[in-house]
Known about the structure:
Blueprint: H1 14-20, H2 23-44, H3 46-66, H4 72-91, H5 99-117, H6 122-130, H7 147-167, H8 186-216, H9 219-228, H10 231-255
Amino acid sequence: MTRPAGRKPTAFDRDLVLDSLGGWRGMVDVSLPTIAFVVANGFGGLTVGIWAALGTALLVFALRLLRKESLQQAFSGLIGVAIAVAIARASGEARDFFVVGLIRNAGLGVVLLGSALVRWPLVGVAAEFLAPSHLGSMVGHSLKGSLRSRARERVAEVRAEDRAQDDAPVEKQPDAAPERHWRTDRRVMRVYTWLTLLWAATFVVRAVVQGFLYWRDEVALLGTSSLVLGLPVTGAALVVTLWAVARLHRHRAAETP
């Protein structure tokens, strides 16, 4: 696999990937309405739990707005909480607050597992979109600002390079060897497949455990399992994924002449 002339292999930027996922704080913020619902429902019943969850979600949204942080994850979390409390309110059962998460976990687990079986592992698709390893990974220096501003800077660089090439005398360049798609690299496919199965397992385990507790109508345990199998497990899987992808990108960059 070849790299464009003048492009140097660079290091995998974990911070940029985390930014695109909302960061660690964003993942913590998503858990707060669930904590509020479980605690308030235990002390004051369903109605109190519903208002506590909604109030916490709105507070998280307002704090992100004041801090001028990305609102995408907070807004999606607010919508998710609104749907969850609407279902619980309509049924009159506190356990139905967790129905949306249960269905989401089961669906994501099935989709991830299916993507691995058809040899299009979704972790690979996401990783190559965020950090294409055939370009020698992502930039290694400190990247600040939004993803949109980085994209604009890259577009400006490309346009400047195009203008410079237009002004330069035309010289016949030797044909470069075609780049290999990441799916044709057995090592890359193996790593991405195992990572995809890892994420599929995390979602399937959550769905099975929460499905059993939902059937038993164990609201407190549903909330506890949602938290224990949520952020800690997601964080561990994310750390493993970032480590494996960074190591994989270094391998591919070293292979690139």
